[in-house]
Amino acid sequence: QVQLVESGGGLVQDGGSLRLSCVASGTIFAIAAMGWYRQAPGKQRELVATVTSARTTNYSDSVKGRFTISRDTAKNTVYLQMNSLKPEDTAVYYCYVKQIVAYWGQGTQVTVSS
Questions:
Q1: Tell me: the pLDDT tens digits for 21-64?
Q2: What is the Cα–Cα distance from 51 to 70, expressed in whole angstroms?
Q3: What letters, b where the CB count within 10 A reaches 16 and e where it falls short, cover 1-33?
Q4: Cα angle value 94/37/84 (rounded, 5°)
Q5: Which helix (H) or strand (E) holds 45?
Q6: Conformational region of residue 8, where left means phi above 0, alpha means psi within -120 to 50, and beta covers everything else
């Protein structure tokens, strides 16, 4: 019903920046929330940031002050601006969209070298 296409992942150096994008398509009628989660090798998937239809944002403590989530409602797109990246941010980042149920993207790799 909903398809998510992520882009923007890549390799950056410690302290660098990267911007992730996720475009939702398909049967879009009322998105309740959009966001980003990440999963590092050997670790559980964790919340990075979310933004609701009311434009309320929520960030993991580990990324507060460094990452910014935003959305373009007209384009059904959510972004994650990542600044001051650290090696600990290395993970596969997954786009998340919730209407009645949740949908997940395929993930985009973010690697931060020291």
A1: 999 999 998 899 999 999 999 999 999 999 999 999 999 999 99
A2: 7
A3: ebebebebbeebeeeeebebbbbbeeeeeebeb
A4: 100
A5: none
A6: left
